[in-house]
Amino acid sequence: MDRFKIEALYRTTGSKGNRNQARAKGKVPAVVYGRGTDPVAITLDSKAFKRALNTTAGSNVLLDLEIKGDNGSSKETVMVKDIQRDPLHWDFLMHADLIRISLLDKLEVEVRLNFTGEPEGAKEGGVFQISVREIRIRCLPTNIPQSIDVPIDGLNIGDVLTVEDINLPEGIEMVEELTESIASVLAPQEEKLEEETEGEGTGETTEEKEAE
């Protein structure tokens, strides 16, 4: 799991105008909370924060904060709980909620599924369809995988993969329902249309029945 060191500054909660001034200076207002400790208002350097989010871990990146202020500094290990973005400029970060974590306690996170290979059914004209692209797991922060590989080579037309079919790395627990579908191979669309056409051809219309 990626870890990223980043400096932060203590801030007073202040007004909306103060937060806007911070954003204009390239800062992201944020709050650190959790683990039974009072919330702490901080600002992050926008460029440094974006670099952290752009690592392979994405929002699951571990942030080692060094928070500085007039009365000294402190260190916190956190993860991103929520990010507010400007609706018109997605790359502009408005605010972040950061949650304190312990490297010794398991937590729940969502991890991307990486489907590998090509289904046998697709080679025969079937359509591979993904139902779920991320799953929720439980593990230690340092064991969070960047993604989980799901081989699909053996899938034939009509086959369905479920959460139960995912092989998890050691030390990781599944949180999702085991019966939930994550992917399948559908029959070719042309074949379905032919079946529907044949079914329609064998039926009698109302006019034909009245003529009889």
- % residues in beta strands: 35-45%
**CATH class category label of the largest domain:** Mainly Beta
**Poorly predicted ranges (pLDDT <50, ≥5 residues)?**
none
Oligomer: single chain
Share of helix among residues?
10-25%
Can you tell me the CATH topology of the largest domain?
A: Ribosomal Protein L25, Chain P
The coarse overall form would be elongated
Q: How many discrete domains?
A: 2
CATH superfamily of the largest domain, by name, is: Ribosomal Protein L25, Chain P
C-alpha end-to-end distance: 75 Å
Query: What is the N-to-C succession of helices and strands?
Result: EHEEHEEEEHEEEEEEHH
Report Rg.
Answer: 26 Å
Strand order, sheet with most strands: 1-3-2-6-5-4
The pLDDT mean sits at 88
Largest sheet composition: 6 strands, mixed, barrel
Q: What class, by secondary structure content?
A: alpha+beta
Number of H/I helices: 5
Annotation, overall tally of beta strands? 13
Short note summarizing the structure:
This protein has 5 helices and 13 strands. The protein is α+β, with helices and mostly antiparallel strands. It has 2 domains: 99 residues, Beta Barrel (Ribosomal Protein L25, Chain P); 89 residues, RNA Polymerase Alpha Subunit, Chain A, domain 2, CATH 2.170.120.20.
Q: Any key phrases for this structure?
A:
single chain, about 210 residues, alpha+beta, Ribosomal Protein L25, Chain P, RNA Polymerase Alpha Subunit, Chain A, domain 2, 4-stranded mixed beta sheet, 5 helices, elongated
